[in-house]
Design goal:
It is a single chain. This protein is an alpha+beta fold. It has a single domain, classed as Pnp Oxidase, Chain A (Roll), CATH 2.30.110.10. It is built from 6 helices and 11 strands. Strands 1, 2, 3, 6, 7, 10 and 11 form a 7-stranded antiparallel β-sheet that branches. It has a 4-stranded antiparallel β-sheet with strand order 4-5-9-8, with helices on both faces. A hairpin with a 2-residue loop joins strand 2 (49-56) and strand 3. The longest helix is centred in the middle third of the chain and has 12 residues, at 134-145. The radius of gyration is 20 Å and the shape is globular. The two termini are 19 Å apart. Residues 1-5 and 7-11 have low confidence and may be disordered.
C-alpha cells in the first residue's frame, strides 16, 4: 500500500489542466479542484478502498470495495456472483469516489469549520479484464496492499481465478478536490477568544498480529510493515 504526503497548503490547481468533462468540473469551491493526472494518481495510489456507485432495478447503490491502479485505470475485483460486478460488467454507468481525510479544521465560528482532505471522483463504465490478464492484475493488487507479499504466498489456482471477476475503469474522466491548511475565518471573527487550528489525522500502522496457528517467523515485508508505513506517512 503506497502513500503520499498531503500537498502544500495552496489548494488551487496550478498545473494548467482543465476538467475533462462537464460532470467532472468542481463547482463547489472550485479553487480546491485539481485536474492533473499526477494529483489523481497520487490520491488513488494512497488508497486501498473506494466506493462504487451504480444503479439497477432496485435503485441506486454505493458499495465499498478494494481498489488499485495500473497505468490509466482503476481496478476492482470480486466474486462472479457479486450483484455489483454483474451490473458493472454489463456496462452500467458508474461513479467511483476515494477520500483521504487529513485533518479536522477548527475555526472560530461554527460555519467555518472544515476538513482537510484529498478526494477523487471517477466517471465512466467498467470493462472486464481478460482472463489472461487476471493473474497479473491480482498480483498487482497484492503488491499494492503489501509490497513483497505476492512472492511468498500460494498463487491462486485456475478455479479461484475462474471464480473471480476483475474490472477496470479508465481515469481519463476524473477530477480531484483537495483542501489543506488552516481555518478560513472572517476578519470580524479573528479576535474571538477560542482556540483555532487543525487536528491532523493519519492512518497509523500498528504492529503485525500473527494468526494463532502460524508458526512462521514474519518475513521482511511483514516485519518491516510498521516502520515502512510510518516512513511513507511522514510519521516519527
Amino acid at each position: 500500500m503506497s502513500s503520499i504526503a498531503p500537498p502544500s497548503p495552496s489548494p488551487h490547481d496550478d498545473s494548467g489542466a482543465s476538467p475533462p468533462s462537464a460532470r467532472t468540473r468542481v463547482r463547489r469551491i472550485p479553487e480546491y479542484a485539481r485536474y492533473d493526472a499526477a494529483t489523481v494518481h497520487g490520491i488513488v495510489d494512497a488508497a486501498v478502498m473506494c466506493h462504487v456507485a451504480f444503479a439497477d432495478a432496485d435503485g441506486v447503490h454505493c458499495i465499498p470495495t478494494g481498489c488499485w491502479r495500473q497505468g490509466e485505470h482503476l481496478y476492482i475485483h470480486g466474486s462472479n456472483g457479486s450483484r455489483m460486478l454483474k451490473r458493472l460488467q454489463a456496462g452500467a454507468a458508474a461513479a467511483v469516489t476515494i477520500t483521504l481525510l487529513d485533518g479536522l479544521v477548527l475555526a472560530r465560528s461554527a460555519f467555518n469549520h472544515a476538513m482537510n482532505y484529498r478526494s477523487v471522483v471517477i466517471y465512466g463504465a467498467f470493462a472486464v479484464v481478460p482472463d489472461d490478464e487476471k493473474p497479473a492484475a491480482v498480483a498487482a493488487f497484492l503488491e499494492h496492499i503489501l509490497p513483497g507479499r505476492q512472492a511468498s504466498i500460494r498463487p491462486g489456482d485456475a478455479n479461484e481465478l475462474a471464480a473471480t471477476t476483475v474490472l477496470r475503469i479508465g481515469l481519463h474522466e476524473s477530477s480531484a478536490k483537495v483542501r489543506q491548511g488552516p481555518p478560513e475565518d472572517k476578519a470580524e471573527d479573528l479576535d474571538w477568544p477560542v482556540w483555532a487550528g487543525v487536528l491532523p489525522l493519519r492512518l497509523t500502522p500498528l504492529d503485525p498480529q500473527p494468526d494463532p496457528g502460524c508458526t512462521q517467523a514474519p518475513p521482511a515485508h511483514v516485519a518491516g510493515w510498521t516502520a515502512r508505513r510510518m516512513d511513507e506517512a511522514g510519521l516519527p
